[in-house]
Specification:
single chain, about 100 residues, mainly alpha, two-stranded antiparallel sheet, 2 strands, about 40% helix, elongated
Amino acid sequence: MSIERHEIEKLATLARIAIDDSTINEVSERLGSVLELVDQLQAADTSGVDPMSHPMQATQRLREDEVKELNQREALQATAPDTEDGLFLVPKVIE
């Protein structure tokens, strides 16, 4: 599949890349080979293939949600300048 020069120039403008006049033929050949590969892939029969979201049929292993640390709120809030009902009080920074 060949791509015309004006199409290459338009693609370069849309992609905001600079393509020299000397490399337009090479870019055209490379894009043509990519499009031929896409045509080959589209020709493959996928009628019996189920779509999938991931190539591996794996599930996430989950662990039990359990507390592993001691509650140290009182010790941590002992050094705080101001607390109320177990919460840190901070000055208002947004008007």
